[in-house]
Amino acid sequence: MNNKKILVTGGAGFLGSHLCDRLLECGHEVLCVDNYYTGTKSNIIHLLSHPHFELMRHDITFPLYVEVDHIYNLACPASPIHYQHDPVQTTKTCVHGSINMLGLAKRMHARILQASTSEVYGDPEVHPQPESYWGRVNPMGSRSCYDEGKRCAETLFFDYHRQHGVEIKVMRIFNTYGPRMHPQDGRVISNFIMQALQGHDLTIFGDGQQTRSFCYVDDMIEAMLRLMESSSLFTGPVNIGNPQEITILELAEKILYLVGGKSKLIFLPLPSDDPRQRQPDISLAKSKLGWAPKVALDEGLQHTIAYFRSIGLSPSQNC
Ligand code: NAD
Ligand code: UDP
Fold first, then answer.
1. CA of 190 to the centre of ligand 2 (A)
2. What are the structural domains of the chain?
């Protein structure tokens, strides 16, 4: 791999910080841009003295003028409680942020990768979801700022590609977990682990029969790097995730078993527009990127539990 100047937006977040680690290991220069909306300096503190790492506080809804070869556009809150906290800002980050980053890519003739999401499929009627499926998304609901924001971002990416020849890579990320998830982000794996570690009840929303497919962060970052380095003719969209599907009830039981302790399972109302099922069809990723996930759920959960144990049980210290 040739050494490049690489911009990572959202680089102080969960996925972004792991991506910065890997890019530096590959010998690149990394400019990490973040407004710390959900990310924290603690995620990248170990990189601050690295000679090829630079950190900039910046909100991508405002233009950015820097010199780079590649852009990974990850900036956007990803957990429902965070993206619903300020839904207008979420849509602005997806739409204005993408316009600004695509404008930068156009000016610099830089390749740009968009962290899109399985949420573009909404509550799907097609299962598992292939990239050709257009989705079933509520345009007015509590998840719409994120779902429709990310759909509009995809539209912008493909229009900049067709209209201006920008080299794009669109990656549809399915639920991903691992160390450096925010302990209070409300996502199911961080919630269940924190609850089990603290001896609190595990909160299952609905009857727990809804499904998700969870990908470990190392597998996700490997796919991201492969996609960025793939042929310029391949734009995606490409699904990246682990096809192993599990019900939320089974997940709760598994985490409780792995953590140990005396927590109980309790059932709470299902949030609105919560998808019933989700599983990626990763045939395209396999054929175009030679990629498939390697880390099994039990192993990934063990690493994640060890991380949450290591940061202690006072999440406020890590916010
Ligand atoms: P995260 O919340 O940990 O990271 C997002 C980062 O973006 C944070 O550091 C946050 O401070 C920053 N940010 C938010 N708005 C910004 C703005 N306007 N300007 C600059 N920085 C801003 O989330 P994550 O899990 O690391 O997700 C990263 C990307 O991957 C997001 O775009 C998300 O939509 C996408 N994604 C993640 C998952 C997942 O399961 N983790 C699934 C699908 C898609
Ligand atoms: N969920 C749950 N208990 C929690 C948090 C989430 O049962 O404490 C459920 C949630 O309703 C959803 C699934 O777990 O069905 C995954 O939720 P998450 O917010 O992690 O991701 P997303 O819904 O965006 O896939």
1. 10
2. 5-177+216-240 (3.40.50.720)
